[in-house]
Write a structure and sequence with these properties.
348 residues; Rossmann fold; two-stranded antiparallel sheet; 13 strands; binds guanosine-5'-triphosphate; binds magnesium ion
Amino acid sequence: MKHNNITINIYACGGGGINIVNKSGLVSKITELTGDAYPLVKCHYFDTSMANYSEFMGKDFTLVTEQTLTNVNVAAGTNGNRSYSAAMADAAIREYIDKNKIGSGPNEIHIVIGSGAGGSGSTIAPTLVAYLGKKDLPVLPIMAGDSKDLESVKSTRRTLLTYRRIATDVLDKPIGMIYCDNNQYSDDYIKAINQANETIKNMVMFIIMLCGDNQNIDYADIKGWINPSKSVIPVSNIYNINITTMSGDVKLSGESKVLVSRILTSENNSKPIQNLETIHSKVGIINSDISSGLDDELFPLGFILSTGYFEAESIRLENIEKDKTSLLEKLVTPKASDIGTINGMIIV
Ligand SMILES: Nc1nc2c(ncn2[C@@H]2O[C@H](COP(=O)(O)OP(=O)(O)OP(=O)(O)O)[C@@H](O)[C@H]2O)c(=O)[nH]1
Ligand SMILES: [Mg+2]
């Protein structure tokens, strides 16, 4: 099968990560992309449970287990417990990555997908990001967080903090990250998940396109957009990655400021490109073998790394966590005046 000289490795971590990659139709879309205009895209699967396993994952599926850990129902998931799977993830990841010689190719991009709310993906994914990042490979986490209940908010917020610790303390360099909160798409859980998956699928497809045949933007540009060097952005932290169609203004949430951008436009598109006042930007023209079949209205496409977003998101999640916790405290510690008894039984 012919491809260009870039390889994109996609890691689906935990139940949510596997669902996002499979149920969104991303896997089947990827298999359609052959020809030397496109990068080679490979999928790898990691989970602590076989619940989401399907035959086609075959040797690319890694069951994360550790026989020596006590009190762990081995290979049966963690039911949201992040501390169990963190201990198990590291060894399994090292073994898989090293055995398959991942990271030894010339032009590799690594996209690590997992939920923030569960116990497995939310630890396997950051562990992978740290391991690949230490090898100085460009690595982009994609996280579907959730704020639908207290445990989900807690886990999502801690996973965000884990990524920040990896950027600041482990890698000492900036990490770009695609993030969404499932709960913000809809009150209807199934609709919310489907919409989050559609958004993530489109983001990944656009990145694949950015790595496809175009003039001006090459592997080094993509690497520098996902994980800019400290000479471009001296502050190690996590930054938000946005992909936006740029007809009109680039819309970024809240206090976000554009740091690094890669703009892809088509040969037919004469729309002016905004001056984004970025630290670093580059414009590429997508070649016709990729752009044919795509709506010309999509262009110019903006691939943007921005600051500001995660601070606001951490505060928002923290506030939800506080609200939900105080509700719980009110329930378990009623005021003395609220307590009465009937026949010796306490009533509240
Ligand atoms: N966007 C999106 N999120 C999903 C999907 N499936 C599950 N999730 C999210 O994942 C959360 C549950 O975490 P999982 O990823 O299933 O958990 P896990 O990583 O397998 O960890 P365990 O707790 O050990 O099972 C849910 O609350 C959702 O927020 C999906 O298809 N799309
Ligand atoms: Mg699971």
